[in-house]
Structure formats: structure tokens, C-alpha cells
Specification:
Shape of chain A: globular
Strand order of the largest sheet of chain A: 1-2
Oligomer: heterodimer
CATH class of chain B: Mainly Alpha
CATH architecture of chain B: Orthogonal Bundle
Strand content of chain A: under 5%
Shape of chain B: globular
Structural class of chain A: mainly alpha
Helix content of chain B: over 70%
Number of domains of chain A: 1
CATH topology of chain B: ABC transporter involved in vitamin B12 uptake, BtuC
Number of helices of chain B: 12
Largest sheet of chain B: 2 strands, antiparallel
Radius of gyration of chain B: 20 Å
Largest interface: A-B, 47 and 45 residues
Distance between the termini of chain A: 12 Å
Strand order of the largest sheet of chain B: 1-2
Chain lengths: 317, 306
């Protein structure tokens, strides 16, 4: 069914991966050390945006609470560090699991609703998590929690910081990106798209519609939680502002400007959004309004997102 | 905790609920009629608060400040409606979320450019600065009492407008079945422009009135938007009556959570745990209410569409 991708489309992901992998080695030569951290942050945001693209783009579930799961992942790391735990992989796996559990609990309630009600109930749950974060004074409350010592990666990799953390994040981002995109073209993925386009029809065909939506929602929540755990290690700081609803809105914006339900939508959106934010902040303290204008222009001029302008037509959802 | 304290907190909750209603009424009608999600509604609230604070400070007249703030906000909303919001009706909710989020970013920077990044002072009108003795031992701030009165009056006015006038009939017709209303010759587009500007006026009024008892700062619109959305979801999107009931409910639940829960917890739990748990539970009380309502009635308490 899928047409054979062109040569460029086959080579591009590997070339991009190689370029990103080499970047920390080349950056010092050009005096771009600062941007290693910037790209690392971008990769983490890409993981979170990919998880949202999975349920929003392929599943049609307009979740406006994805930042809540990022916060759950980040605070899981905080809780483990507070308890004296030092293994990075253990903390990340725990963040993945805890976020999946929280997403399951939220999903059970939220998935009873549709459309805008779903959008608002996910928003409300994220706001609830934000409030919890503000109130829990053992983890710093509103002031946040600093992670002073980096976590340990083990396996001879040493501390989860600097370039090592960059490569680990890159590997995880690439794996998750490849995996979620593989799932998107699996039987499960096609069923998910079917539900997005016509839920009643899929129900009639005998698909377990609610289970498919639930599974996708939980998976996306878990991946977002992992992104949150990585973000905690990247920033060495966790605060409730991670879970503010405008963060969820930003993720949603990234996915929409990148291209909903398109393979390269999330990475492209994250790259464009973060680069613009960074550049604008460099020149002015009024960096928000140009972004606002851009959003309005994109909604009217490129409603299918930026990826639609560059992708092979064969890759449309 | 005694009866006086309870009464005082209930009045506070009622006041907060009425202000939420002013915000939610516009939001729920815009949503109900045009199926349009407007995240920038909170920015209109912020505009009202800033404008009123500024005019009040320079002119000294609070009533004048509130009226000017409302008029100016309506003008801004009118321009926004013509330039942007009108073009969003036929689009999906996501496009609306993204575009109106863009509006929030622009509004925040505009306010920052005009009034600077720090909060501005919104003084309480001098005549209302003192307390009023409601009961022998219950002094209550006069300003909050006025807030209650204005909120009730406006709610009554909106209720009359929507339920007992010709315009209101058109509004309800549009909310319950837009296609049918259009088919019967109602110019839904015009009704919507009216509703959108009415919503802006109410949001500005809420902002102007809340200014003296809350912080007038950038981000206040984003903060109040979420409770307002909770209200319209609990009440049933598109229903003004639902928004009213839900606003009072949310206002009371929120204040009750903040005022009564911590002392109750302190009575039954160890102090350290109660100190942590109290604010956390208080903050999420209204979301629990919303989740509970949606579990029992997924379309809210008073669904506008049958």
C-alpha cells in the first residue's frame, strides 16, 4: 500500500542521525559548545512531541495535558533521588512506569469523553498535577527541586551529563521515534487511524475501540513521562512550571505546526519552534508575539503543518 | 472554625463564583453557538483588569474606569473578531486552540510593552475601602459586597437577555442547533459577533472588578482561564444556566477546599502531613468536582444540545 519511498527519503533519517551523533564532537571546533545542550533539549522535546503526535495525529485524541505526564516523569526522578537512588536507567524506567500508571488512571476517566470535552478534561487533570506539584513541599513545592549530583548511567558510561547524556538521549529519541512510527503503520496504527476517522465504523467492524484508544493514550503518557525524566536530568532541576497548561499548549502547537499525523511532524515542529524561540530571545525580550503571529499565520496559510510542505506525498496519514 | 468564619468564607466563594460566571458566560456561548474554542478569553479579562487599573489611577473614578475598560476591551474584541476569530469558525478545534494560543502570546507581550513586566497596583475605590458590619460580629469588606451585588445583577441581566428577549432566543436557537437556526433564517454569524463582544464585555468587567482583590499581572488571564473552562464543562457547554450553577458550585468548592479542608485535616492527621496535604487537596478540589460530574454526566449538568 505504501509506495516505495524515494532515495532521499530512505537516506535522510540516517544522515540526520549521523549528523546529530557527530555534532557534540564537531561543536567545540566551531565554538558551538552551548548548542550541544540546546540540541539535547530539542531531542527531549521531540520525544514528548512524538508521543503527542501519536495520539493526536494518528488517534485524533486532542489531549491538552501532555505536560502533566512530563511532570510525573520528572517528579518520579526527584522522588527516587530524594530516596537516595542513583541509577539513571532505573530512574528512567520508573518514570516510564509511573507515568504509564498515571496515564491509565487519567485515561479511564478522560476517554469516556470526546472532542472538546476530552481536550478540557485532560487539561484539567494536568492542572491538577500542577497543583499537586506546587503543594508538595517535600519536593520543593513552587520553588522546584535541584538535582545536584547527576545520575549514574552504569555500564562504563559514567554520569548522565554532558555529551554522554546527549548520546543517550539521541539514541532513545531515535529508537522511540522509529518505534512509534513503526507502530503507526502497523495493524494497530491503522486501526487507530480508522478510529480517528470513523469511530462508529470501527466499532461495527468489531475493533475494541476503547481498548485501542486506551492503549495508545497510556503509551503516549509513558513516553512523555520518559521525556520528563530525561528533562529532569538535562535541566538538573524540576519545578511545577513544567506542568503548567501553557507547556501542554506549546507541545500541541509544536505538533500542529510540524504536521499532525505526519512522520516528521514532531521533530520538524520542535526544531522550528525551539530554534525560533532561542533566536528571538537572543535579540529581544519581546519574543512571544512573533511566535504568536507565526501560529496565526500557520493556521491560515499552512493548516496541514510544515511537514506537509516538504514530505513525500506518499507519507501522508 | 465557627459560624461567622463559615459565613464569611461562603460569601467569598459566592463572589469568586460570580466572577467566574462573568467569564464563563461569554466562553460557553461562543463555544455553544460557533463551536469555537477561544483560549484568548483570559487575555480579554487581563485587558479589562489592566485598563481599569490604569484609568482608575489617573482619573480617580472607579465606575468610569470600569466602563472605559469594558468599552475598550469590546473594541479590541471587535477587531479580533473581524480579523481572526471569524475566520476560525469553520476550522477544527485544534486550529482554534493554536491560533488563540497565538493571540495569548501576542496579548502578553503587548501588555508587557505597555505596562512593563511587573504587576500593577489596582487600588480599591476609596469609598469602598472599609468594612461593612453584616452582623454584629461579622465585618465584611464593602468592596467584596459590591462585587457580589454587581455579579448577581449582571448574572440576572444575562439570564433575562438570553431567556426572555428576541436576541436571546436567537442565541439559544444557535446554541441548540446552529444548522437548523441558519436554515430558519437566523443570521448566526451576526448573532455570534454580538455574543463574542458581549462575552468580551463581561470578561473585561470581571477583570476590572477582580483587579483590586487579586494580582493584576501578565499571566492572570492564563491562570483564570482554567477555572472558567472547568465551569463551562461542568455546566454543560453552551448553557448559560449551567454556567451559572457550575460557577457558584466551583466557587464554593474552591473556597471550601481552601478554607475548611486544612483545619479539618489538622484535626484528624499529624500536623506535618496535614500541612502538605491540605493545600494540595484544596487546589485540586474543583478538578475532582469536574471529573466526578463528567463521569456521571459526560455532557455536563445542563447539556445545551439535546
Amino acid at each position: 500500500m505504501t509506495p516505495t519511498p524515494s532515495r532521499t527519503a530512505r537516506v535522510f533519517p540516517w544522515a540526520l542521525l549521523a549528523a546529530l551523533a557527530l555534532f557534540p564532537l564537531l561543536a567545540p571546533i566551531f565554538g558551538l559548545d552551548y548548542y550541544v545542550g540546546f540540541v539535547r533539549h530539542g531531542l527531549i522535546v521531540t520525544i514528548a512531541a512524538t508521543s503527542l503526535n501519536f495520539i493526536l495525529g494518528y488517534g485524533g485524541m486532542a489531549a491538552l495535558g501532555q505536560a502533566g505526564f512530563i511532570g510525573v516523569g520528572a517528579y518520579t526522578v526527584v522522588a527516587l533521588v530524594e530516596a537516595g537512588f542513583t541509577s539513571a536507567w532505573g530512574a528512567w524506567a520508573a518514570a516510564f512506569g509511573v507515568s504509564a500508571a498515571v496515564a491509565a488512571a487519567i485515561g479511564v476517566v478522560s476517554l469516556r469523553t470526546r472532542g472538546v470535552y476530552f481536550l478540557m478534561i485532560t487539561l484539567a487533570f494536568a492542572a491538577m498535577l500542577h497543583h499537586l506539584g506546587v503543594s508538595l513541599r517535600i519536593w520543593g513545592g513552587d520553588d522546584g527541586y535541584g538535582l545536584y549530583a547527576p545520575l549514574d548511567l552504569g555500564m562504563g558510561l559514567g554520569d548522565a551529563q554532558g555529551r554522554t547524556l546527549y548520546w543517550v538521549v539521541l539514541a532513545l529519541a531515535a529508537l522511540l521515534f522509529a518505534f512509534l512510527n513503526r507502530v503507526a503503520v502497523s495493524r494497530f496504527g491503522y486501526a487507530l487511524r480508522g478510529i480517528r476517522d470513523n469511530e462508529t465504523c470501527m466499532e461495527a467492524l468489531g475493533y475494541p475501540v476503547q481498548w485501542i484508544k486506551f492503549a495508545a493514550f497510556v503509551a503516549a503518557g509513558a513516553v512523555a513521562g520518559l521525556a520528563g525524566a530525561l528533562l529532569a536530568c538535562h535541566n538538573r532541576f524540576v519545578s511545577p512550571s513544567l506542568m503548567h497548561w501553557t507547556e501542554s499548549a506549546t507541545l500541541l502547537v509544536i505538533v500542529v505546526i510540524g504536521g499532525l499525523g505526519r512522520r516528521w511532524g514532531a521533530p520538524l515542529g520542535a526544531a522550528v519552534w525551539l530554534t525560533l524561540t532561542e533566536t528571538l530571545k537572543l535579540y529581544t525580550e519581546y519574543w512571544r508575539w512573533p511566535l504568536g503571529l507565526l501560529l496565526i499565520l500557520i493556521v491560515f496559510l499552512a493548516p496541514r503543518g510544515l511537514a506537509a510542505l516538504v514530505e513525500d506525498p506518499g507519507e501522508t496519514a | 472554625m465557627n459560624a461567622i468564619f463559615v459565613l464569611e468564607q461562603l460569601l467569598n466563594g459566592l463572589g469568586y463564583g460570580l466572577m467566574l460566571f462573568l467569564l464563563a458566560a461569554g466562553l460557553t456561548l461562543v463555544f455553544g453557538i460557533m463551536d469555537t474554542m477561544n483560549l484568548a478569553h483570559g487575555s480579554l479579562y487581563m485587558a479589562g483588569a489592566y485598563l481599569a487599573a490604569r484609568v482608575h489611577q489617573s482619573s480617580g473614578s472607579f465606575i468610569g474606569a470600569v466602563l472605559i475598560a469594558m468599552a475598550a476591551t469590546v473594541a479590541i474584541a471587535g477587531v479580533l473578531e473581524i480579523l481572526i476569530v471569524r475566520r476560525l469558525y469553520p476550522r477544527g478545534h485544534l486550529a482554534q486552540v493554536v491560533a488563540t494560543f497565538g493571540l495569548i502570546l501576542i496579548a502578553d507581550d503587548a501588555v508587557k510593552a505597555i505596562w512593563g513586566p511587573s504587576p500593577v497596583l489596582a487600588p480599591t475605590p476609596a469609598a469602598l475601602a472599609g468594612p461593612v458590619r453584616l452582623l454584629a460580629n461579622l465585618p465584611y469588606p464593602a468592596y467584596r459586597l459590591v462585587l457580589l451585588g454587581v455579579g448577581l445583577l449582571v448574572a440576572l441581566g444575562v439570564g433575562l437577555l438570553v431567556n426572555h428577549t428576541r436576541v436571546g432566543m436567537l442565541v439559544r436557537a444557535g446554541a441548540s442547533n446552529r444548522a437548523m437556526a441558519e436554515f430558519m433564517g437566523v443570521r448566526v454569524g451576526r448573532v455570534f459577533s454580538f455574543v463574542f463582544t458581549l462575552g468580551a464585555a463581561l470578561a473585561a468587567l470581571a477583570g476590572a472588578l477582580m483587579g483590586p482583590i487579586s494580582a493584576v499581572q501578565i499571566g492572570m488571564g492564563e491562570a483564570i482561564l482554567i477555572p472558567a473552562l472547568v465551569v463551562i464543562v461542568v455546566g454543560g457547554i453552551g448553557s448559560v444556566r449551567g454556567a451559572f450553577v457550575a460557577a457558584l458550585l466551583v466557587g464554593l468548592v474552591d473556597i471550601a477546599g481552601r478554607a475548611f479542608l486544612p483545619p479539618l485535616l489538622r484535626a484528624v492527621l499529624p500536623p506535618a502531613l496535614a500541612a502538605d496535604l491540605g493545600p494540595a487537596l484544596a487546589g485540586i478540589a474543583m478538578y475532582v468536582l469536574m471529573a466526578a460530574v463528567l463521569i456521571l454526566k459526560p455532557a455536563g449538568l445542563f447539556p445545551a444540545r439535546a
